[in-house]
Design brief:
The chain has about 350 residues and is α/β, with parallel strands linked by helices. The protein has twelve helices and nine strands. Strands 1, 2, 3, 4, 5 and 6 form a six-stranded parallel beta sheet that branches. Strands 7-8-9 form a three-stranded parallel beta sheet. The structure holds zinc ion.
Length: about 350
């Protein structure tokens, strides 16, 4: 199914996965697996030639807090779990902390991790916690998940029309100063534009699709995409089937890529595939957002199917250069622009 041209291109590209949750890690730990990220997930990601992944170690959902709803405490525990996994990997997994850490070639053994939060609840309304999380390795943060937090309203709060709060504004400015990637996935539409007004540099949306192609509460409209692209930002497309189409296929997912490329240019497209096959069930409070059923695209279910998207892009006639940008080049450019170049430039102390 994957031809030699696509296979070669896939193997020679630096692939960046714009979004991954810790849910699989927690599920396997609860089942007694030791170091599940390194022992179970890592080999699968390396089979798919994934170089770098944005790993959402905590966030706003009940599942991210491992059912405790103690977001700050569980963030600290989860960060320790991740750092312990990295420790036992003997150099095979590494945190991206500065521009200097970014890969310049694909590597068969090394998995780079960008530590991320899927929403700002773990800050518990305190800017100093943002700085402390930065010191622990946090480099990317979504402002919200689906609901309201201290920073802003998420997409599921559309009834009241809220955007960024004063605290959210302070967080965006501090993320700018520290050199952290600001992620607009899941934020309300007013919040989207509020953040773009406050942020000084390029901003991303790691895992959403296009409303023009498929209307869903998590997809975003053309005005939002244009405003994001104007910052030099990147939009990662999402393979959760309910956000792709009523009749989801890989080809329809690639329609979202083509739409973004036609609207604002190929430099603003990435992959935030959010593969959920191995995650296990979310807590019931989180399942109400309708992502629970029919979550998988046939023949594009997890990382083992990853090269299929490269094949699909080749068949659509995209150049090797453009495909390389979509597979990871654009996210790498963005990280290079946002992260401090090296430890000496850190402003968090
Ligand atoms: Zn998400």
């Amino acid at each position: 199914m994957v031809g030699p041209k696509a296979r070669k291109l896939h193997d020679e590209s630096i692939i960046v996965e714009g979004h991954r949750d810790l849910f699989e890690m927690v599920r396997l730990m609860d089942a007694g697996q030791k170091y599940p990220l390194f022992n179970v997930t890592y080999p699968r990601l390396k089979r798919a030639n994934i170089s770098t992944t944005f790993y959402s170690i905590c966030g706003d959902s009940v599942t991210h807090s491992r059912g405790t709803r103690q977001f700050l405490k569980s963030a600290l525990e989860n960060i320790d779990m991740l750092r312990e996994e990295i420790e036992v990997s003997s150099g095979k997994m590494k945190l991206i902390l500065h521009g200097d850490d970014l890969p310049d070639a694909p590597s068969p053994d090394l998995l780079n991790i960008v530590m991320s939060f899927e929403g700002g609840r773990p800050l518990e309304g305190r800017i100093e916690h943002l700085r402390n999380f930065y010191r622990l390795g946090l480099r990317s943060m979504q402002i919200t998940w689906n609901l309201r937090n201290e920073l802003a309203d998420g997409v599921k709060e559309e009834r009241t029309g809220g955007g960024l709060t004063h605290f959210g504004e302070a967080v965006v400015k501090e993320m700018d100063r520290l050199g952290m990637l600001i992620d607009l996935a899941h934020i309300s539409r007013p919040g989207w534009f509020d953040v773009l007004e406050v942020a000084s540099g390029p901003v991303c949306c790691t895992h959403s699709n296009c409303k023009k192609i498929y209307h869903h509460f998590r997809t975003i409209d053309d005005e939002q995409i244009k405003a994001l692209a104007q910052t030099g930002g990147v939009l990662g497309v999402n393979a959760i089937a309910t956000m792709v189409s009523k009749d989801p296929t890989l080809d329809k997912l690639v329609d979202h890529i083509s739409h973004i490329a036609d609207l604002v240019g190929i430099d603003h497209v990435g992959l935030g595939l959010d593969f959920v096959k191995d995650d296990g069930p979310l807590y019931p409070e989180d399942e109400i957002f309708g992502v629970g059923e029919n979550r998988l695209i046939p023949d594009f279910e997890n990382e083992d199917d990853f090269p299929n998207i490269t094949e699909c892009l080749v068949r659509r006639g995209y150049s090797n250069e453009d495909i390389t940008k979509v597979l990871g080049g654009n996210f790498l450019r963005l990280l290079k622009a946002v992260l401090k170049p090296n430890a000496a430039q850190d402003v968090a102390g």
